[in-house]
Amino acid sequence: MTIDFDKSGGLVPAIAQDADTGAVLMLAWMNREAYEETVRTGRAVYFSRSRNRLWRKGEESGHVQEVREIYLDCDADTILLKVHQIGGAACHEGYQSCFFRRVEGDKLRVVGERLFDPKQVYKK
Amino acid sequence: MTIDFDKSGGLVPAIAQDADTGAVLMLAWMNREAYEETVRTGRAVYFSRSRNRLWRKGEESGHVQEVREIYLDCDADTILLKVHQIGGAACHEGYQSCFFRRVEGDKLRVVGERLFDPKQVYKK
Fold first, then answer.
1. Phi-psi region of B10 (alpha: psi -120 to 50; beta: other; left: phi over 0)
2. Is the pLDDT score of B124 beyond 60?
3. 3-state SS of A10-70?
4. Rounded to an integer, what is the distance from CA A111 to the centroid of its chain?
């Protein structure tokens, strides 16, 4: 079983989908190390491009993602995780899904429900 | 409404999700031109990295994707399309979803149902 990490410079996109509702929660990136730790621990670990390091999802907020199933696409260069999102919100802005804005003409309309206030969760 | 096409060298990932079932069908890439044509025509247009040109999904197979809704993520660098997949199969290998293989230990198990034989659809 070979994931093609080389195609995009060591990182492949990983989609997190809610295992129960089917909602697409977020897209992040994985390098080989992140993938292997995800498999080993059963919790989603990504690679943060902005921080240039492993990102154990929920390491700060406690909102970890328990991985139920892992799928690989036909080209072996995209990963799909079916997860249980602890806390209900995958997005750092407090929404269930990072895709909480719908394109309507030239505008974006917020359609997601905010589950928490980021200021209360990320104490910076 | 600004999508950050510059962050990844002009291309952002676009997830296609079945609007009715919620199944994640595929992930492909869009540049600005692909996105604008998608919005204008209501059919998914991607940018093929391997062919280095616009890829009007279904242009060869007829299996176009009618776009019902478009969502943008919190960082404005990933697109989620809710689509109606003509022909039922998004994957060029004949499966509903490109994510037809589940990781089981060190192996991949095919869990999707094949809806068509690629040889019959892509006459090469």
1. left
2. no
3. CCEEEEEEECCCCCEEEEEEECHHHHHHHHHHCECEEEECCCCEEEECCCCCCCCEEEEEE
4. 19
Mean pLDDT of chain B: 93
Answer yes or no: do A22 and B22 touch at CB < 8 A. Answer: yes
> In the block, which residue shows the tokens 């689509």?
B83
Residue A6, pLDDT score: 84
Beta strands in B31-115 (DSSP E): 45-48, 53-56, 65-72, 79-85, 101-104, 107-110
Q: Find the chain A residues whose C-beta atoms sit closer than 8 A to any C-beta of B.
A: 1, 13, 15, 17, 21-24, 26-27, 39, 69-75, 78, 80, 91-93, 95, 98-103, 106-108
Task: Please give the single-letter amino acid code of residue A7.
Answer: K
Q: What six digits make up the tokens of B84?
A: 């109606």
Spatial contact of B44 and B16, defined as CB atoms under 8 Å apart: yes
Whether residue B47 is predicted with pLDDT greater than 90 in this model: the reply is yes
Instruction: Indicate the Cα dihedral angle B101, B57, B75, B39, nearest 10°.
Output: -150
Say which amino acid occupies B88: G
Work out how many CB contacts closer than 8 A connect A with B: 90
Q: In the predicted model, is pLDDT for residue B123 greater than 80? A: no
Residues of chain A with pLDDT under 50: none
Q: Are A25 and A97 in contact (CB under 8 A)?
A: yes
ipTM: 0.95
pLDDT over 90 at B15, yes or no: yes
